[in-house]
Amino acid sequence: MNTQFESAVVTEQGKSIAVVSVQPTVFQNSFNASMVIKGLLPVFKGMPVVLMTLDPQGVPAYFGRSDLILLLENVNIKEASWKEITADIDLSNSCPMKEAEE
């Protein structure tokens, strides 16, 4: 299923990271969030991907590798150059019962 996302490539301490904006509900299921990251890797040619959402106060929250999240905490993400991308993300393999338990 083709899905559209807003993304930015951020370089911090010599490391390029693809930051992709998602709805807060994506963070509610870590399996689905991991599947979104996996589906985005080909779009960014294997560059590491971190998901981002904004809380109601506009403060970013991240999901991904902890070393990358630590780097992103030094970045004003709102100043990044954002663009729209399309990726083929299939979440049909997730387990509905697992989601209901969480």
Total beta strand runs: 5
Strand content: 25-35%
CATH structural fold name: Diaminopimelate Epimerase, Chain A, domain 1
- Summarize the main sheet: 5 strands, mixed
First-to-last CA distance: 25 Å
Number of domains: 1
Radius of gyration: 13 Å
Assigned CATH architecture: Roll
Instruction: Give the H and E element order.
Output: EEHEEHEH
Low-confidence stretches: 94-102
Overall geometry comes to: globular
Q: Which structural class is indicated by helix and strand composition? A: alpha+beta
Helix proportion: 10-25%
Number of continuous helical runs:
3
Q: Major sheet: order of its strands?
A: 4-3-2-1-5
* Arithmetic mean pLDDT: 86
Under CATH at level 1, the class stands as Alpha Beta
Write the layout of secondary structure elements.
Layout: E1 2-12, E2 15-21, H1 30-40, E3 49-54, E4 60-63, H2 66-72, E5 83-88, H3 96-101
Parallel strand pairs: 2-3
Antiparallel strand pairs: 1-2, 1-5, 3-4
How is this structure best described in words?
- It is built from 3 helices and 5 strands; from the N terminus they run E-E-H-E-E-H-E-H.
- It has a 5-stranded mixed beta sheet, with helices on both faces.
- The protein is of the alpha+beta class and about 100 residues long.
- It starts with a strand and ends with a helix.
Which characteristics define this entry?
3 helices; 5-stranded mixed beta sheet; disordered C terminus; Diaminopimelate Epimerase, Chain A, domain 1; 102 residues; alpha+beta
